[in-house]
Design a protein that fits this description.
homodimer, Sulfite Oxidase, Chain A, domain 2, Immunoglobulin-like, five-stranded mixed β-sheet, five-stranded antiparallel β-sheet, 9 helices
Chain lengths: 427, 427
């Protein structure tokens, strides 16, 4: 159901809000009745409040704005026991505090292997070498003289939800699913730079390399490099943030995050993959029989309910309730998401709202009249190839429980009578 | 021309980049040759740099990220002589530093009439009263129990470019055109709240009122309120910034910015417009004969070249050069933008890149091989209704030069042989 059909009232599924509020008024005590149906005057609206009596800060106060102090709880979080050191670690996007599909730059999760490289943009260089006719070195200004494109893409770490392989672990979608963000990138198609260098006929793979102390490298097939990869310098309009690769990163749409090399310093062209550290000992999927799946680049279709969720329980009691979440696929768009309130026994089609863009997050909603009984919330994404997000048990049947990466199983949140929400497993 | 056609090489218009660089190499001295064609090894790429030798900051350093210190010049700016006090004033979005179509929240221009109201979200209330069956008071949580939508919309102050009526004034697109921003809003359709209150049959207008000390009010026709207005609480995913109306503002897509009432506290339903201060003494368009045009709500199609521009001159010398800018219309989308290099004598169709969304900024590009001769850069937007952006002189013929508002005339930048760029008038 699109916003358009909703606008014209032909929703079919969205219950009348007036019915909701009347239902809520009947359902319980004062605490459970939305204030919108209160009969008494509210002093917060009838009495003149301080903010209406005094002048506030002017336009010279904040040349670069920051969130309200009341939103200080909206932040990236890391899990101390997860890694030996915060230098080679991860923090997580607070998905439960966000809405829409754009992640603000300050809240995009971070994953570093050697901390944040601090590079003066005047000292930035990008080299293209290997099997090319003309090895090239570009300054940042050189890159900005090539034609640019703008695309919104999700970036998901291959290890997102990785700790859930052996059962429900972390209590909050920030921790189970927060290694994903979605921004608009501006950059030069890698294809144009490779054309400039002149890839030799034996060239079949490219090796992007990071300028930080970890010198991150991954083997990328030339076909992907020529298709939709971007050498990007802006995110959501402004220059990349330091932790996202300032001043230049590679964008590899739909593919696992560690291939999106940050602080990009070099792109080598070769005739076969390099089998470097980050594509052998890491970022391969260990099966039960000891064999490992390699080169699992594409991120499968996935979804998660962001509200309610363990960090964002239902606090308003029974009555009208909004369920919302995110869905994405490395293979295209998300035409449909289903929501279950009973652990997967019954499903209803969610309402999508916001632009449906290729390899981008999609936002879904399901509004319902909660009767106060416990819920087992699930969401299930369908992508534009027809693929349907599997259950965790279906994944485990094929891949066992030794893997860290590419867990796109259906997530379950249990909501109790008081609204408290927890990460659980159902089978 | 779409990105798709560009990708397959069928661009028709984008010159070969290799031809560009060869041309540049022939055109001038070393300073004008892009570094990408340098033959000698560059020590910045061949020698190990400090950022590759030492570990950087970890994931615990910045729970809410900020731009690189090297980007400190990218900021909102106000003009001290423009207003008596920064409390009732404006600052401007640095359009010349941005790309794509999303404005980061920290750089969205500000316009306040009594400074930034500081409201604790727990104390927030929205009242709907007047010609309704059920006067209602909503808390923030109440609002979040209604169905939400997500839309990217531009917000432009009616006074944007207002100082240009009498000729070229301010040297920089930040100052001439920087009272516009473009973010993704999440909010409840106003229609749903009005349905809840039950608008009486005599109701024809709504009066949104701000909670700040200026108590901003504007008359909005009920038809618009029921069409696409949003009661919004999020921008680019996170809660509204304080200066943008935290926690709740009205979104009035395509209409002038001061109707998008911030810190929204009340919506009254009436049977005729109120003719309040901000729609009589201000935000009306004074004609030469002393009459004033009122209720000029819709923002006409407009465009501006953001690079090069006076604050962002050409510093790389002749050769491959990227011209880019923004276009928008309060009446729909922008299917086409034309660019002129010679003050409007000849026009070429620009390349659009990025999502084309209703009542949203659109990004255009024109790449060309600059021969080093002076340029008179212009852009001209065509919107989806067929309307074509007029020249400033065409506007003055109809409206005179007494107006402040709704100047959507074609902007001209003069680029000299050294790349220095200035705001000029051509006729």
């Amino acid at each position: 159901m699109s916003d358009e059909t909703e606008k014209t009232g032909k929703t079919g599924e969205a219950p009348s809000r007036r019915a909701f509020l009347k239902g809520a008024a009947l359902a319980g005590g004062a605490a459970m009745v939305p204030a919108s149906v209160r009969a008494e005057p509210d002093p917060l609206i009838t009495e003149v409040q301080p903010w209406a009596q005094f002048l506030g800060e002017g336009v010279d106060a904040r040349p670069y704005g920051t969130p309200s102090p009341h939103e200080a709880h909206v932040r990236r979080r890391h899990v101390e026991w997860l890694t030996a050191d915060p230098i080679s670690s991860v923090n997580f996007t607070p998905l439960h505090e966000l809405d829409g599909i754009i992640t603000p730059n300050g809240l995009c999760f971070e994953r570093h292997h050697a901390g944040i490289a601090e590079i003066d943009p005047g000292d930035y260089r990008l080299m293209i070498n290997g099997l090319v006719d003309n090895p090239l070195v570009f300054t940042l200004q050189d890159l900005m003289r090539f034609p640019r494109e703008n695309h919104v893409y999700f970036l998901e770490c291959a290890a997102n939800s990785g700790m859930e392989w052996r059962g429900a672990q972390l209590n909050g979608c920030q921790f189970t699913h927060g290694m994903v963000h979605n921004v608009m990138y501006t950059g030069v198609p890698l294809r144009l730079l490779l054309q400039e260098a002149g890839v030799q006929t034996s060239g079949a793979w490219v090796l992007p390399e990071g300028a930080d102390a970890s010198a991150m490298t991954r083997s990328v097939p030339l076909e992907k490099a020529l298709d939709d990869c971007l050498v990007a310098f802006k995110m959501n309009g402004e220059m990349l943030r330091p932790e996202q690769g300032y001043p230049v990163r590679l964008v590899v749409p739909g593919w696992e995050g560690n291939m999106w090399v940050k602080w990009l310093r070099r792109i080598e062209i070769g005739d076969q993959p390099w089998h470097h550290r980050e594509e052998t000992s890491k970022y391969t999927d260990l099966f039960s029989d000891g064999r490992a799946r390699r080169f699992t680049w594409e991120m499968d279709a996935k979804s998660v309910i962001t509200n309610p969720s363990p960090q964002a329980p239902i606090t308003h009691g029974p009555g009208p309730t909004v369920v919302t979440g995110l869905a994405w696929s490395g293979r295209g768009t998300i035409p449909r998401v289903d929501v279950s309130l009973d652990g997967g026994m019954n499903w209803v089609q969610a309402r999508m709202s916001g632009p449906s863009l290729d390899k981008s997050l999609h936002r879904f909603y399901h509004e319902f009249d909660w009767d106060g009984r416990p819920l087992l919330l699930q969401s299930r994404a369908h992508d534009s190839t027809g693929y349907v997000q599997p259950t965790k048990d279906q994944l485990r049947e094929v891949r066992g429980v030794n893997s860290i990466y590419h867990n796109n199983g259906i997530q379950t949140w249990a909501v109790d009578e008081t609204g408290v929400t927890e990460n659980v497993e159902v089978s």
